[in-house]
């Protein structure tokens, strides 16, 4: 038997298609037609969410199988057939890539995968890795998809990971409204959360497991184990047929993109950033309801932005004051004529500055608060007419309305990679030793 990794990316467009759907179709066909033995759940690897040319979710897929040597050609032909039939090749921005790689994943491929989550990779860099590792590729149009396809092979999810059960609609339903029983989703959330996550947006009660576009996904349930996402899917009632479903193992909800603590000066465009800063100006609300606050470290200053879609997260940002120390997490995109702006994904408040207000001093005789007697004239008591010259304003420390800790936007504004609050402390250290019995249909 030969170990074969199959990476696929950039098959979808803004209006349709879905690389995970191709993965789900391949799981069934490869098992049935080539006797492939899956050594892992199919992997869904989310890449750097800040890169400029990404398609909707910027997710690539990898299938890892053991296969008889004489079946490899059949496997390759089936993969190529499925990608060609299910890719949106007409879309200008879709440039599919397939990578086949035999044997254990080498260190340089793992390193490449790490970079694909935390940085920007150009096509020529991917082609160099292809040459160096002897990977076999098939590209369409510009073939940019091989970057994600290689990265998906290289990201073996050795440590923290989560699962997503994706179910798909029959083609005749694509493009029509999804008919899922909403109450069943609330019930599923009640019974399985926190072992499942991001089912519902708490602020708006909006259901998040169903996408709204014309793609084939009916719903996706994210969770900590394959067992729980499968159980959760049994609670959800669908009024339309489910053509197929599959459980993916993924880096979603792991913060894999937010690793390095960087100085502001080191933050580069399109990179995910994590930076330790001090707030230097009071927050401002700008048109559109966005909240901007200026921060600095010893290298530079930066604007931190909590945009309108982040919901009540903006209220936390508004409560920051100069002197507060936080770790800011987010991505930087270019904006014309604007200072460097970090689009906040989350913050960790490390230290809160004391909030001080100054009040006029109290009268030493009657205790009433005094009035200013004019510039440099001291204070006068209105009640007993006492006049005090060498007396200062009273410094009063008022309680802060926020506490140190981690704050995230509402789930509807999360990136796929963003680790939800409930996952803190649930991080996994190993990959699963074996697969559950039934992890896909058909
Ligand atoms: Zn008085």
How does this structure look, described?
- This protein is of the alpha+beta class and 442 residues long.
- The chain has three domains: 2-255 and 425-432, Alpha-Beta Plaits (2-Layer Sandwich), CATH 3.30.70.2200; 264-352 and 400-414, OB fold (Dihydrolipoamide Acetyltransferase, E2P) (Beta Barrel); 355-398.
- Helix content is 21%, strand content 28%.
- The chain has eight helices and 23 strands.
- It has helices at residues 19-34, 72-86, 107-118, 123-133, 145-154, 182-192, 226-235, 313-318; strands spanning 2-9, 37-38, 43-46, 59-67, 97-102, 136-139, 162-169, 196-197, 217-223, 242-250, 272-279, 284-286, 290-296, 301-306, 325-332, 341-351, 355-359, 371-372, 379-380, 387-388, 394-398, 405-407, 440-441.
- The strands form four sheets. Strands 1, 2, 3, 4, 5, 6, 7, 8, 9, 10 and 23 form an eleven-stranded mixed β-sheet that branches.
- Strand 18 and strand 19 form a beta hairpin.
- Helix 1 (19-34) runs antiparallel to helix 2, helix 3 (107-118) packs across helix 5 (145-154) and helix 6 (182-192) packs antiparallel against helix 7.
- The mean pLDDT is 94.
- Bound molecules: zinc ion.
